[in-house]
Design goal:
Strands 1-2-3-4-5 form a 5-stranded antiparallel beta sheet, covered by helices on one side. It starts with a helix and ends in a 5-residue tail after the last helix. It has helices spanning 3-11, 77-86, 88-92; strands at residues 15-21, 29-36, 42-50, 56-64, 72-74. The protein has a domain at 3-67. The protein is 25% helix and 37% strand.
Length: 97
Amino acid sequence: MLRKTKNFLQANNINYKKEHVNPLIVPEKVYVLKFGKTTLNNRFIVEHTYTWTGRIKINKISLRLHGQKSPREFPNETELLHYLKRNIKRYNTDVKE
């Protein structure tokens, strides 16, 4: 899942860590991909389900940069990549506090 996004992060030397979360109450599965240059303080949250044929259907992709309160939401990976390519300087450097 998110193969193009992972390739994009690797090409720009951005570290990432992935994990699956299975909530008990909702039928959707959640996939979390944390990323950043040195600290993994940005994340993608992908809500997906499986079709009756077993294929993955992405319902929503949320992008939270540096702990944003309201995430940006994308319906598919293509729009997410388009946004990332336009704003690479924003998430390519870490915030020093």
